[in-house]
Amino acid sequence: MKTYYDDNYGFWEDMDDPDMQEFYWKTQRKNVEKRCSICGRKVYIKKEYDKCGRCADMIERGMDW
Question: Containing H/E element for 10?
Fold first, then answer.
């Protein structure tokens, strides 16, 4: 099974499915390069986001920045 990663949603599984691949690539085309407002890494995320997926996951798990 193929797995992809991006800084919007994290890991994408079930990437053998053509519909999932199409949705993934459609999402990727909308990304812009930004610096995460928490860790400062350069990432490709949606223009309305300001945090990378890794930092967003940590916040959701209760870590305090």
Answer: strand 10-12
CB atoms under 10 Å from CB of 36, counted, come to 19
Helices then strands, counting H and E runs in the chain, come out as 2, 4
Is 12:2 a contact under the CB 8 Å cutoff?
A: no
pLDDT band at 1 (very low <50, low <70, confident <90, very high): low
What are 7's two structure tokens? 């800084």
Q: Does the pTM of the predicted model rise above 0.85? A: no
Residue ranges of domains in the chain:
4-60
- CB neighbour class for 60 (10 Å; exposed up to 12, middle 13-18, buried from 19): exposed
* Euclidean distance between CA atoms 42 and 45, whole angstroms: 9
